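Encode chain A's predicted structure.
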Amino acid sequence: MDDCELWMGAIDSHGYGVKRFWGKARKAHRVVFFLANGWWPEVVRHKCENRSCVNPDHLEGGTQADNIRDRDGRGRNFFSSRDHCSAGHEYTVESTYVRPGTNHRQCRICNREWNRKRRQKA
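Encoded structure for chain A:
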């Protein structure tokens, strides 16, 4: 892969370049993708993982699902690396419910406690 071309203008709080285009502030990599390819995809993904890169060869269009697959495949999903819920219960096969089709984990212990409190209020 060729070298990244770093955006030299404004950068947002997430590290993406920002460019005024058609009267709106837009992410620079999205503008570059549009100018190079002539269409606006749902998501413009960086093959190089460098958020400030605007090299058209490093950019590809896709869907949010593609973007999530990229993130998870590259080990950048913060929540998938957690081994305990926010209350401190360990995620184990027995104590964890995984919502079908979403990979979203729920702590069975916390869920049981929440339901118990809800029933007491009624």
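The CA atoms of residues 65 and 102 lie 11 Å apart.
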